[in-house]
Every structure is written in structure tokens, then in C-alpha cells.
Design brief:
The complex is a heterodimer. Helices cover 35% and strands 14% of the residues of chain A. By secondary structure, chain A is α+β, with helices and mostly antiparallel strands. In chain A, a hairpin with a 2-residue loop joins strand 1 and strand 2. In chain A, helix 2 packs across helix 5. Chain B is of the alpha+beta class. Chain B has three domains: 46 residues, Uridine Diphospho-n-acetylenolpyruvylglucosamine Reductase, domain 2; 111 residues, Uridine Diphospho-n-acetylenolpyruvylglucosamine Reductase, domain 3, CATH 3.30.465.10; 111 residues, 2-Layer Sandwich (Enolase-like, domain 1), CATH 3.30.390. Classes of the chains: A alpha+beta, B alpha+beta. Chains A and B meet through strand 4 and helix 3 of A and helix 2 and helix 6 of B.
């Protein structure tokens, strides 16, 4: 089947079987390999992407269902080439990763949280990434990274704060 | 972890969806797909055709109809989670929503999908049974209502005919002035499938005595069940933990709990008593906080 997808503000027409997950379509057809294939049945969260701004598991959505939505992958988060988003920066600085496999999904889940809640509590951060498994168990620094990014993003919006 | 091949259709309305179901024995409806797609990935489900109802106009809504709140089949779980009508009129449903899967599955998963999959551990199913919701399905161009107590037949088995499609769930609204709700569940990790869950809704008079109660236990037996006797025993009573535990213990004495690697039948029965007692305690406390 032919389907038109809006990914990171660009339209892509792809030919897929109905059974092709959005995840496989992103990785194999569009070479957007930042969405990672972990369990492929909706448990690990490694394949998280944003669909109309909400964190969604791309392994639990077929590509043929995804037309008409604004899809954002980790490749679409940075403001420009060679730059990083505040969340990506914060993950680097606090070393919010070990092997890096869960990282793109963690950042997107955190991005969805911060776009709705500029000042999340630790509990809200933990809840927001509770559907994302880090097998290195590096959660402490991941939570730290999200809190740091939230603080910076609030600062950006309030530059004259004393 | 790749599903078997299938055909894909996106009907324009619910009657066309029913016609597609009738035309193909192996066809299944998909809305959010958060239960069905994992089953397909594991090849536990191999539908020949998926009929995608997610974008059928007019199937996603929360409608305040006074004595009931009608929730359209494809209403997404994350919409319910923050819906002001649900928060004020269906506090028990609002209470359980954060426990339904994870943020990322609630963004796609639907209320109707949770209902028709009939997972005994599903929180939305537990609320439907506890409050005595009515389910309305569409078949042959007509709507047919059925009580939740008659709808759920076993684990992932419901009374929904093969050629019918769920249209809406109608949750009863309690008009009592002081309502309180409680919910507790035990699972291995946050938002994983519950081993035991319990929900309670009580109404209190000005004196703190119960005028009405609904209590349900999920994930323990093949289908969530209501504790009618316990609800009766709370009538005109203030909260008394020992009495509540006794009543729940008696009510679950003869049930036959499910068992798996994580939770034995004995464990489930024992924990059900504690979860129900806590849910009832919370409901009383919640209600007393309301003038």
C-alpha cells in the first residue's frame, strides 16, 4: 500500500505492506534509525516517537495508520544541523546514558512531558519515562538530565529572571 | 516479532465496518491497537484483515447525558485521563486512568478497545463492572445495549458478536453529594498488568455513614467481579477496617482465582482482601473530604 507520512516536517511517500510497523518503515524505508527496535511488542519503549506531540510506540502502530499525523523522530529534535536540543544537551552533560540504546526514546518521552509540563516533579519525570526500559539501569542520570533540561528551558523562556 | 500478513481497510462509518466484519471471518477491528498489535506480533492473533475504525467521525466523544456519561468507542485513553467531565462525574474512572498502561500506550489506546479486549486485569473493565456500565454495540444497522455484567465472559472473551462493533460505553453517574473513590493494584512494575486490583466508590451522608457503595475486584478471576454483599454490609456504616476485612474475606472465600508464575491463587485471594479494604478505606476518606 502507498502511504504518505509527515515526518520531521517533511512529506514522504512510501510503499509498505499493511503489516509493516511504523518503526520498521522509519528504519528500513526512510533510514531514520534513531527509533530503536527492542522488544517489538510494546514493552520496552525503545521505539518511541512523537505523534502529534504525544509519545507513542512506533512498533504498535502500522505505517498505514500513520498518515495525516505530524511524526517526530529523534532526528527531528535538534533546531539545526550540528546542534542539539536542550534535552539532548542535558543528556550529554549529565551523562544520561550508558549504552545509548534507550536514549532516543527516553529523550522523546521527556520531550513530550516537558512540552506539557514545564516544571515537572521528580515523580512526574519518573512516571513519564516509566514505559521506557533502560537495561543498563542508568535511570538516576536520565532523571537528572530531564530535570536539568526542564530548568534550562524555563530559563530560556524567562531570560530576565533574577 | 513481526505480524503475519493481512489486508487493511479504513471504513467511512461504523456500519461499513460491520459489513466488512460480516464479509470476512478472519477480520478484526483495530482502533488504538495497543492490545491487538502485541498479540499479532507474537502471532497469538492472525487476522486476515484489519478494519481500522480509529478515524471514523463521531466515534470519539465524552457526552454528559445526566444520569450517564457516554464515552465513544474510539475515545483515546489519554483524552479520558484529563477530561473535565470524567473528573467531576466519573471520579472512579479518572482515578484508574493513570494505571492504564503507560503514557505512550494511553496516547493511542482507546476506551472501547480496552472494553472489547476484556482483559481481566484491565482497569477500565474493572470500572465498567464495578459501576455497572452499559455497553452499546452496533450490528446490522442497529444499536444493542448490554450490561457489563453480561458482557465479559472470560479472559479476553466477551459477548460481542463477531459481526458487531462496539459503539459506546455508558457509565452511570452517582448524583449523591458526597462521593469518594479508591483504587489499589499490585503489579511487578508500575503500569504492568495487575496481579490484583480493587476499586471502590462510596456515597456518605452528612454523618459519615455509607448510603451507597460499589466495590469490584479485578485480575483475580477470569472476569472482574462486584462484591455485592460487601457493598450491602457497608450500608449505614462508618468505616471499620476489621469489619470490612471480614466482609471481603467472606466474599472471596469461594472464588477460584487464576494463577501464574508471578502470583499464585492463594496469593491473589489473600491480597484481594487487602486491596479491597484499602480501596474502601480510601473511598471513605475521599468522600469525607467533600462537603
Amino acid at each position: 500500500m502507498k502511504v504518505e507520512l509527515n515526518i520531521n516536517n517533511a512529506t514522504h511517500a512510501v510503499e509498505v505492506e499493511p503489516r509493516t510497523s511504523l518503526l520498521d518503515c522509519l528504519r528500513d524505508k526512510l533510514l531514520l534509525t534513531g527509533a530503536h527496535a527492542g522488544c517489538e511488542h510494546g514493552v520496552c519503549g525503545a521505539c518511541t516517537v512523537l505523534v502529534d506531540g504525544a509519545a507513542v510506540r512506533s512498533c504498535l502502530m502500522f505505517a498505514v495508520q500513520a498518515d495525516g499525523y505530524a511524526i517526530t523522530t529523534i532526528e527531528g529534535l535538534a533546531p539545526g544541523p550540528g546542534e542539539l536540543s536542550p534535552l539532548q544537551d542535558a543528556f550529554c552533560e549529565t551523562h544520561g546514558m550508558q549504552c545509548g540504546y534507550c536514549t532516543p526514546a527516553m529523550i522523546l518521552a521527556a520531550h513530550a512531558l516537558l512540552s506539557k509540563n514545564a516544571q515537572p516533579t521528580r515523580e512526574e519525570i519518573v512516571d513519564a519515562i516509566s514505559g521506557n526500559i533502560c537495561r543498563c539501569t542508568g535511570y538516576t542520570q536520565i532523571v537528572e538530565a530531564i530535570a536539568l533540561a526542564a530548568e534550562r528551558m524555563r530559563g530560556q523562556n524567562d531570560p530576565v529572571r533574577p | 516479532m513481526k505480524p503475519a500478513a493481512f489486508e487493511y481497510s479504513r471504513p467511512a462509518d461504523i456500519d461499513e465496518a460491520c459489513a466488512l466484519l460480516a464479509a470476512d471471518d478472519g477480520a478484526r477491528v483495530i482502533a488504538g491497537g495497543q492490545t491487538l498489535v502485541p498479540l499479532m506480533a507474537m502471532r497469538l492473533a492472525r487476522p486476515s484483515r484489519l478494519i481500522d475504525i480509529a478515524r471514523i467521525p463521531g466515534l470519539s466523544y465524552v457526552r454528559d447525558e445526566g444520569r450517564e456519561i457516554a464515552v465513544g468507542a474510539t475515545t483515546k485513553q489519554h483524552v479520558i485521563e484529563s477530561d473535565p467531565v470524567v473528573r467531576s462525574k466519573l471520579p472512579l474512572l479518572a482515578k484508574v486512568m493513570p494505571f492504564v498502561g503507560h503514557t505512550a500506550t494511553r496516547a493511542r489506546g482507546t476506551v472501547g478497545g480496552s472494553i472489547v479486549n476484556g482483559d481481566p486485569a484491565a482497569e477500565i473493565v474493572l470500572v465498567a463492572v464495578t459501576l455497572g456500565a452499559t455497553l452499546v454495540w452496533r450490528e446490522g444497522g442497529e444499536n444493542a445495549p448490554i450490561a457489563a455484567s453480561d458482557f465479559f465472559l472470560g479472559p479476553m472473551v466477551t459477548a460481542l458478536p463477531l459481526t458487531a462493533c462496539l459503539a459506546e460505553t455508558r457509565f452511570p453517574v452517582w448524583s449523591d453529594a458526597r462521593i469518594g473513590v479508591g483504587f489499589h493494584e499490585v503489579n511487578a512494575r508500575q503500569s504492568d498488568f495487575a496481579f490484583v486490583s480493587a476499586a471502590a466508590q462510596v456515597a456518605l451522608d452528612g454523618d459519615g455513614r455509607c448510603t451507597r457503595a460499589a466495590i469490584g475486584i479485578g485480575a483475580v478471576t477470569a472476569v472482574p467481579f462486584r462484591l455485592e454483599g460487601v457493598a450491602q454490609s457497608l450500608q449505614s456504616q462508618r468505616f471499620d477496617e476489621d469489619k470490612v476485612r471480614e466482609a471481603v474475606k467472606a466474599a472471596v472465600a469461594d472464588i477460584e482465582p487464576m494463577a501464574d508464575l508471578h502470583a499464585s491463587a492463594e496469593y491473589r485471594k489473600r491480597v484481594a482482601v487487602t486491596m479491597a479494604a484499602r480501596a474502601i478505606a480510601d473511598a471513605y476518606q475521599d468522600a469525607s473530604g467533600r462537603a
